[in-house]
TrEMBL record:
Cofactor: [4Fe-4S] cluster
GO molecular function, one term: iron-sulfur cluster binding
Keyword Amino-acid biosynthesis: no
UniProt entry tagged with the keyword Phosphoprotein: no
PANTHER family assigned to the protein according to its UniProt record, in alphabetical order: 2-HYDROXYACYL-COA DEHYDRATASE, 2-HYDROXYGLUTARYL-COA DEHYDRATASE, D-COMPONENT-RELATED
Family as reported in the entry's similarity comment: Belongs to the FldB/FldC dehydratase alpha/beta subunit family.
InterPro entries in alphabetical order: FldB/FldC_alpha/beta (IPR010327)
This protein's UniProt keywords: Iron, Iron-sulfur, Metal-binding
Species for this entry: Orenia metallireducens
Pfam assignment, any one: HGD-D
Superkingdom, taxonomy of origin: Bacteria
Full protein name: 2-hydroxyglutaryl-CoA dehydratase
């Protein structure tokens, strides 16, 4: 089975139907003990220090892990991906661009997906067959999410991990599903997690994944991870076909579309506050202006760069934010 890398969530059903083993390069990068070597490799090859660490990490992983083919999202995700693909092509990697249409019209989504299927020589019937199988696994991820925000038994990190891993199902969706079944059975036997503050995480998945554990020191827990949840397509079972499913994928379209669902989840999950994570040198940092204007809930914006652990300044800001939320909840402010 040939291996193909992806730069973010793409129509994985198409790649699986074409017989590929799919690898999300982000997940290899951020979970590596020596993650910085991927960044160093990119900077050695000329990537500027002022460019996004994720882009450099993807580049480094692609070369070091010997990825020969890659699908890169050139519209709807990182604005630097197009240049990344050009450099990787120069290095001998076969690249396949995919674009989520800016128009966010169903007919344009259908056209983009049909072109993607034709590129990999697979039929819609084959793709729908794979989608049906994947949606059974996604239903398990959805159950884990409910164990986080309804039953209060799964941790925020567990929810984050399996949602973000749904971009490639760790290379084997059958094994991923069995692992989830075992985990869910174990979580059901736990006592509920009793935390005063219910937090939401919005924005790109963090490099600083210790944030999930850190907030628990202050009587708080994350019960919502916005983009990670979208990677798992939580509304896939509501749609009749792959076109509708990817039309309803919020992360890659306009901010108003994302905010509609974020507002819904704030109310559904009874959130006390949001932490909005952005990556340094990313255009999405600017979106924080709109987000703070549109959402009627306390929001802390934090930014990450090359570190995969929270720095002291960010920890202090989070602690102060959680103290403020606690005072608000107890009526002291």
């Amino acid at each position: 089975m040939n291996r193909i890398g992806i730069t973010t969530t793409v129509p994985v059903e198409v790649l699986l139907a074409a017989g590929y083993q799919v690898t999300d390069l982000n997940n290899i990068f951020v979970t590596s003990e020596d993650y910085s070597e991927y960044i160093d490799l990119a900077e050695k090859d000329g990537f500027p220090k002022s460019s996004c660490a994720w882009i450099k990490g993807i580049y480094g992983v692609c070369l070091k892990e010997g990825i020969k083919e890659i699908v890169g999202v050139v519209e709807g995700d990182c604005s630097n991906t197009r240049a990344l693909l050009e450099v990787l092509e120069l290095k001998g990697v076969k690249v396949y661009p995919f674009a989520y249409p800016h128009s966010h019209q169903l007919k344009d989504v259908k056209e983009a997906l049909d072109k993607f299927m034709a590129l990999f020589n697979v039929s819609r019937e084959d793709v729908e067959d794979v989608r049906e199988k994947l949606n059974k696994v996604r239903a398990l991820v959805k159950r884990l999410d409910k164990l986080t925000y309804l039953d209060n038994k799964a941790t925020g990190f567990e929810n984050h991990l399996y949602q973000v891993s749904s971009s490639d199902f760790n290379g084997d969706f059958n094994r991923f599903g069995e692992e989830l079944k075992t985990l869910i059975a174990e979580i059901k036997e736990r006592n509920p997690i009793d935390k005063k503050l219910r937090l939401g995480f919005i924005g790109v998945p963090p490099m600083t994944i210790d944030i999930y554990e850190y907030v628990e020191k202050f009587d708080a827990s994350f019960v919502y991870s916005e983009v990670q949840r979208e990677f798992a397509f939580p509304r896939a079972d509501e749609h009749d076909n792959i076109y509708q499913q990817y039309y309803d994928y919020t992360y890659v379209y306009d901010l108003d579309f994302r905010l509609k669902y974020i507002k819904r989840e704030i109310e559904l999950r009874n959130l006390d506050g949001l932490i909005h994570y952005t990556q340094a040198f990313c255009y999405r940092e600017i979106e924080n202006i709109v987000i703070k204007q549109e959402l009627d809930i306390p929001i802390l914006n934090i930014s990450g760069d090359k570190l995969n652990r929270l720095d002291s300044r960010t920890k202090l800001r989070i602690e102060a934010f959680l103290d403020m939320l606690g005072d608000l909840k107890e009526g002291r402010l």
